Amino acid sequence: MMAKETRLGQIVILNGAPRSGKSSIATAIQEASDELWMNLGADRYIRITPEQYRPGIGLRPAGIERMEERPFARREMIEALVPTMYAAMYESIAAHSRQGLNVVVDAGHHGDYDIPMGILYDCARRMEGLPVWFVGVRCPVEIVWERRRNTWLREEQIPDDTPPPYSVHRWDREVHNPGIYDLQVDTSKMRPEECGREILKHLKHGPRPAAFKRLAAMSAGDRK
Hints:
The chain is of the alpha/beta class and 224 residues long.
């Protein structure tokens, strides 16, 4: 008797800067869909990473953490592990899809490391043959900065009229490079629930995904 063929699970990669609303959208997709969606994003992966290796795949663009948060030696050690961590996370995503499980992922892909590594392009190649939608989660830096002040930085009581620092602008610029997406949402204009429904609608009625196929054919030198 032949085994029943398993339908591939759909994959949604939400890519955006910290506090742009990715995690809330991931939850909204899980709650709005009649199907099972597993959340295997960066937030989950960072939680299973030992403290001495954090932020791991959440490492910021080159130059920022080195100056503001961690000595270069620590950053250099973590950065060397980041490609392997991303590869492992994406292989896990692929395994879930091949078992018929839908997967939603919050990510913050950027290529601004001390040494070009082409992580996004490698991850895209690992998803070959799988139904992957790459979704850009946009939000103006002023609103991202306001959210950071009201959450992570609340105890510092930063004045409301303090402009977004360079690090916030750099994150926003680097995370959306090269800007190839199947769909984009703006969390300053839509609530997470609306974004989630829009993404699910696109999966059902929109064109087939093509962004990861294009990215898989690129290399780190194609970023700019």
